[in-house]
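Hello again, I could really use a second opinion on something today. Take your time with it, there's no hurry, and the full record follows here:

___
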Amino acid sequence: MSYRVCFVCTGNICRSPMAESVFRARVAEAGLDGLVEVDSAGTGGWHEGDGADPRTVSVLRESGYGTGHTARRFDPSWFSRLDLVIALDSGHLRALRRLAPSREDAAKVRLLRSYDPAAGDDLDVPDPYYGGPDGFDECLEMVEAASEGLLAAVREHVEGRAA
């Protein structure tokens, strides 16, 4: 049985598809791609069916990551099949925990930057949507930094299941 991770931001066109793409690459590099499933969603449905923001696609492509994506809205029924729900900022964290049907499901929701020991107290990944290209580069840097710690945590769970 796969370990399932879903990244969630507001519209599922900037931060969460970026995190999904980066983490999927880390999972493949670690040889866990058959054991870990990675996807993403948004707290709102404004962009459902759209591709990722062109600036997100550009930053990902320039850094060698995959760029295929279709936006969708997070559905609370998914909690039952997900092992970890990764929020990109504290607003998403609160929204997702409110949607969770149980305490156990709410406990599955974590902030991405909580996996980056260098993040300090500011655990939000800022929304780059209304800014320029530098915001997308900054977002990618934060996602990449947190992905290493997240991979270590997921690997621990996956290896625990295999034991």
Q: What stands out?
A: The longest helix spans residues 133-162. The mean pLDDT is 96. The chain has five helices and four strands.
